[in-house]
Amino acid sequence: MLGNIRHAILDRDGVINEESPEGYILSPEEWIWIPGAKEALSMLAQAGIAISVATNQSCVGRGLIDEQGLYRINEKMKNQAAEQGVFFAGIYFCPHLPEYGCRCRKPAPGLLEKAIRQTGFERCETVFIGDAARDLLAAKTAGIASFLVRTGKGADTEADLQKGIVKEIDTKSVHVFDDLLSACRAITATKEKLAK
């Protein structure tokens, strides 16, 4: 139920920031907020909802960027979010290639489980917001609710769900929103209604 949400875990690329046409964000200069995303994060923070980020970053495993470079990109996100009064509970990333077979790369649930464990919130109080089928699958395996946004890969993911291409996901169980801002409006509006 939306009103129970106390912790939102967000995918990064395609949800908070624009996807790179080249496939990977490799510098702070390439990292660009999706319109409305800062406002969305601020809305969650003002509602007292903790915010974590869980992102696959195989660009590290591919040698395109090192962890220090990824840290600089995340610092830009953190610093600009802080200007809006937003502070992340945690930023979790998987640096591995798909063939590595790790438990942290989505659709595996490792990053989400780590965020839940370290923040101390219950699974029933947590939602994962992403733009790809692997995000929905990771949330399902982790036992938490998931929202799909149409930004990034989201519109294509929604089409795949409607065609039945992603067989492991029950389309009726997926809440779909135009973007992070509309998803966060739904979360906070429900929370406010229940508080009255």
Give a description of the structure.
With 196 residues, the chain is an alpha/beta fold. The chain has one domain (2-195): HAD superfamily/HAD-like (Rossmann fold), CATH 3.40.50. 38% of the residues lie in helices and 15% in strands. It has helices spanning 37-46, 58-61, 67-82, 110-119, 133-142, 154-162, 180-195, and strands spanning 7-10, 50-56, 90-94, 126-130, 145-149, 175-177. The protein has a 6-stranded parallel beta sheet with strand order 3-2-1-4-5-6, sandwiched between helices. Helix 1 runs parallel beside helix 7. The chain is globular, with a radius of gyration of 16 Å. The model has no long low-confidence stretch (mean pLDDT 94).
Give the arrangement of secondary structure elements.
Layout: E1 7-10, H1 37-46, E2 50-56, H2 58-61, H3 67-82, E3 90-94, H4 110-119, E4 126-130, H5 133-142, E5 145-149, H6 154-162, E6 175-177, H7 180-195
Parallel strand pairs: 1-2, 1-4, 2-3, 4-5, 5-6
Helix pairs in contact: 1-7
What name does CATH use for the topology? Rossmann fold
Helix content: 25-40%
Rounded mean pLDDT score: 94
| Coarse morphology | globular
Side by side, the strands of the main sheet go: 3-2-1-4-5-6
Number of domains: 1
Give the oligomeric state: single chain
What is the chain-wise order of helices and strands? EHEHHEHEHEHEH
Q: Biggest β-sheet: count, sense, barrel?
A: 6 strands, parallel
The radius of gyration is 16 Å
Shape-level CATH architecture: 3-Layer(aba) Sandwich
Query: For the terminal residues, how far apart are their CA atoms?
Result: 16 Å
As a percent range, the share of strand residues is 5-15%
The number of helices is: 7
Segments where pLDDT lies below 50 for 5+ residues? none
CATH superfamily: HAD superfamily/HAD-like
User: Could you tell me the number of beta strands?
Assistant: 6
CATH classification, class level: Alpha Beta
